[in-house]
Amino acid sequence: MATIIQPQVLRASAIPSVEHFIITSICTNGNSILIATNIGAVYKADLEARSVHKIAQVGSCWKIICRDKLAVLSSLNGEIHLLDSHSGAIVQTIKAHNASVRCLEFLDDQAVISGSKDKSLRIWALKNDSLEQRKTLTGHTAEIRCLFADGSLIISGSLDNNARVWNAETGDCTHVLQGHTSGIHFIKKDGNRAVTSAEDGYIRVWNLTTGLCEAVLDGYGPNQVRVAPVYLVRDTLFTGTKNGSIQSWNLNELPPVGSVLSAALENLPVDLAVSGSTLVYGTVAGAVYSVSITSGEFVRYWEGETRARTIFRVGFSGEKRPVAVYLQGGSIHVAIF
C-alpha cells in the first residue's frame, strides 16, 4: 500500500516578478540540482546545505546539462554558455545558432550536440572547458525540439514531424523516421529501439536497424496542450496516458502488451524519470508519485502544498532520492523524497 510522505522542501529566495516564469530544465550534479529558467536565471539546490540560491544569469535558458563541475546551457537567443557550477562563473559564451537552441545533450565525454529552431544540429568538441564547432548536420525542415545522443549515434526530433538518425562520426543521416503527423517533442532510446512522442497524440516505436515503425501507441490523443512523456528501459516503455495513469509496455511483444502501472488520477503526468526500480512522475495538479516498476504498485505519493501547482520537473539526486521542482508563492521549491 502506498505511503503518504512529507518531503524535505528547499525554497529559493523570491524570484523576479515576471509573467510566464518557467522552470525549463534541471540536472543532477553530485549532491546538487541545477535549475534553469526561461528568464536566464540559474539556481543551485545544495542538498547537503539544504539551500537554493541563484548562481548565474544569462539572457535566457531552455536546457541545462552538467558533468562534474561544468554545466552547459542553451539559450533562446542562439547562444550556448559554459558555466562553472561551483563558482557560478560563466566560462564561455558562443553564438552557436541563428535561432533558439531548444535541445542540448552530451554526445560523449568530449563532445556536445545542440539542436535549434534554425533547423540544424551542431556537434561541438569540448576541450579545456571550451567549445569548438566540429560538424553541422542539416536535413530537418523545421525547428528541432528534442535530441538523444549516445556516442556515435544521434536521434533528433523536429516540428517537421520527422525524426532523423545520424552517424555522429560522419554526419550522415542514416534513417528518416516518418509517420507522425505533428511535431515530435520526446525521444528515448535503449538498445536497437527508439520511441518518439508527438503533438499528434501518438507514441511510435522504431527499429533503428531498419528505420521502420514497429508499433503505434496511444499517448494523450490529438488536440491536447501537452505531449505524453516517455521513458524507455531496455524492453519496457513507460508512458503517460490521457486518464492520468502511467502505462507500462512490453516491447518484446508486437504489438506491445500494455499494463496500467498506476491508477487513473484525472490529471496528466508532465514529467517522469526512472532510476533503478523506481519511477517518479509529477502532474499538472501538483502531485508527485513514486511507483515500483517491478511490482507496478505505488510506493509513495505526495499531494501536499503543491496541490493545484504544476510539477515542472522531476528527477533523482546523486543519492538516487526522487526530487521534484516547482514554483509556489513567488519562489522555486525543490522537494526531496
UniProtKB/TrEMBL annotation:
InterPro entries membership: WD40/YVTN_repeat-like_dom_sf, WD40_PAC1, WD40_repeat_CS, WD40_repeat_dom_sf, WD40_rpt
Keyword Repeat: yes
Gene3D superfamilies xref list: YVTN repeat-like/Quinoprotein amine dehydrogenase
Domain of life the protein comes from: Eukaryota
Pfam families: WD40
Extent of the WD repeats: 94-134, 137-176, 177-216
Protein name as annotated: Uncharacterized protein
